[in-house]
Input
Amino acid sequence: MHRTGIGYDVHQFSKGRKLVLGGVEIPHHVGLDGHSDADVLTHAIADAILGALGLPDIGHYFPPNDPSIEGISSLEILIHCRKLTHEAGGSINNIDSTLIAEEPKIGPHLDAMKTAISLALDIETNQIGVKATTNETLGAIGRKEGIAAMAVASLSF
Output
């Protein structure tokens, strides 16, 4: 059996934070606000995997009011999702994702992101799609107030 899940996440920019996308620290003058490292890409991927499993979203497993996980690397969230997939008798076929941001430029970091995600999920980099687009200056993303991401996960059982 094949199952598919969809994930979406958005975080606003915040001064004094590192910008982490796809498990990679990206040089930028602001980071994203959040309880963890606020990595919108891995959060969207995690929710896609959890959705394919028919499970609750990442907030259920990693609640934003839990002080023990404050600042956690979102790659740890992906590792947890991989374990849940294996416990359910499944495997991850592929991930496709898109970052939506006016800045910074994402292209130079795509290979590093795919490598970090592949290691966390224990799949090959050619099973992961990471793309980037802008919001054509429309809305909060277009005004450079934050970054959003969406993802689809395909699992087999």
Remarks:
- The chain has a mean pLDDT of 97.
- The first helix runs from residue 40 to 53.
- The longest strand covers residues 2-14.
